[in-house]
Amino acid sequence: MVTDSRESARKDWDTYFMDIAYMVSTRSRCLRRHVGSVLVQGKKLLGTAYNGAPMGVADCSEAGCMIVEELELQITGGEEQMIKKQRCIRTIHAEQNLLLFTDRIDREGSTVYVTDQPCWTCANMLANSGINEIVYHRSYPKDSDKVVNLMQQKGIQFRSLADYEPPEQAKINVKS
After folding, report:
1. Where is the binding site, in residues?
2. Is residue 95 annotated as part of the catalytic site, yes or no?
3. What does the entry list as the binding residues for Zn(2+) (predicted)?
4. Which one, of 17, 60, 36, lies nearest residue 171 by Cα?
């Protein structure tokens, strides 16, 4: 039997769509984190988006980040502690842009591939968007427990591609 070398080099669907999400992330001009997302129905790509300032507005590379600090009460092992979080409010997240630029009918029963685990706000929006699966690569520990719990409550498949390796052209240094 003759093995086609092209077939043996062919990527599985998860890798293929995550590669696209990473390539989309290269459009981001965010100074802290480049995030890309794609909407997939079956094997059909329906939309892509990345994080950044609203269209026509100076982005972080031009005007600087708009960092705000928030305190969040976290209970661990019965003990309360206040956790300080920082976030840029100039940037619309990739998942939010994906929802803004795709139709609800296309999202029903679809999958979102995103380079980074969604934050709490994006997870809430995705949970109400009609999708049935989220596949991500890099973890986002600040909101992870809450997001995992929400996805379980909603019955949305939520999985990490832990062994995935992004395309060389899309690798960036990420600030935590």
Report:
1. 93, 119, 122
2. yes
3. 93, 119, 122
4. 36
